[in-house]
Amino acid sequence: EVRVVESGGGLVQAGGSLRLSCAASGFTFSYYAIAWFRQAPGKEREVISCVSSNGASSYSADSLKGRFTIPSDNAKNTVYLQMNNLKPEDTAVYYCAARIGYLCMTVDREYDYWGQGTQVTVSS
Fold first, then answer.
1. I want to staple 64 with a disulfide (CB 3.0 to 4.6 A). Which of 15, 51, 68, 87 is the partner?
2. What pLDDT digit, counting tens, does each position of 74-111 carry?
3. pLDDT class for 5, splitting at 50, 70, 90?
4. Which residue has the higher pLDDT, 78 or 38?
């Protein structure tokens, strides 16, 4: 059974940093992709970034480049979301999602496995 578990959310002041972790387990296929999404109150869920297990496919939202990065540790099957210079508009529930295959997709319906979400709140 595939499991995806996020951790690391919390309250931070504007300009601060947070690192979220996504631990994935149970994959029986060699290739999979892990993505980070977020959903702010009253808004649709949006993709932030994605990386495939073999590194051949990746994606990062243009609006967040320079502040958010997606380092990974394949040995631990863990993908991180490093968020720097946080702004109040980054306040949202952040989700980690996984899909079988080596392509990163930007649409949430393409992902089969989801974590429970972790709240990130940025105060001004």
1. 68
2. 788 889 999 999 999 999 999 999 999 889 999 999 99
3. very high
4. 38
Tokens 């979220």 found at:
20
Q: Can you list the pairs that 62-70 forms with residues at least 24 positions away whose Cβ atoms lie under 8 Å?
A: 70/36
- Classify residue 14 by its DSSP letter: T
Sequence-distant (≥ 6) Cβ neighbours of residue 57 within 8 angstroms: 33, 50, 51, 102, 103, 104
Question: b vs e for 15-24, b when ≥16 Cβ sit within 10 Å of the residue's Cβ?
Answer: eeebebbbbb
The pLDDT assigned to 54 comes to: 84
For residue 92, give the 3-state DSSP assignment: strand
